[in-house]
Amino acid sequence: MGEWIGFFLNGVIEQCADATARSDRLLALRDRYRDQVQQARASGLLLQLIDHLFEVPVISIPRAAAHLNVTYLTARGQVSPLADRAILRPIDNTWLRLYRADEIISIVQ
């Protein structure tokens, strides 16, 4: 039984170390994204959208509009600069234009 507990605890330790490393990478990426848009004197809405991407890394313009509580056109104006900076990438072959944050997804997968 003691051998099984040691094996289990080693697994827990490895998972904790992996979660910590992923969290650190996500925080560093979030800071980098925020720095990029703050240097361009972006609106607070853009910063809110960046933060939201770390909760939901796939988004549509209508979903962004709902989250930011703005019109479709205003949301599109927030998504476009993120796509221009390659923070978001459009997903092809969907009836509703979706955008994905590939760097975020690669860290959490």
Describe the structure.
The chain is mainly α and 109 residues long. Helix 1 (2-39) packs antiparallel against helix 2 (44-53), helix 1 packs antiparallel against helix 5 and helix 3 crosses helix 4. It has one domain (2-108): Arc Repressor Mutant, subunit A, CATH 1.10.10.10. It is built from five helices and three strands, in the order H-H-E-H-H-E-E-H. Strand 2 (89-91) and strand 3 (98-100) form a beta hairpin.
Q: Which CATH architecture is right?
A: Orthogonal Bundle
Question: What is the beta-strand fraction?
Answer: 5-15%
Radius of gyration: 18 Å
Overall structural class, as computed from helix and strand content, comes to mainly alpha
**Low-confidence blocks of residues:** none
CATH class: Mainly Alpha
Tell the overall outline: elongated
The percentage helix is 55-70%
Could you give the order of strands across the largest sheet?
1-3-2
Average pLDDT, to the nearest integer? 92
Number of strands: 3
Task: Please describe the topology of this protein.
Blueprint: H1 2-39, H2 44-53, E1 58-60, H3 61-68, H4 72-84, E2 89-91, E3 98-100, H5 102-108
Antiparallel strand pairs: 1-3, 2-3
Summarize the structure.
This protein is mainly alpha-helical. The protein is built from 5 helices and 3 strands, in the order H-H-E-H-H-E-E-H. 16% of the residues are buried.
Task: Supply database-style keywords.
109 residues; mainly alpha; Arc Repressor Mutant, subunit A; 3-stranded antiparallel sheet; 5 helices; 3 strands; 70% helix; 8% strand
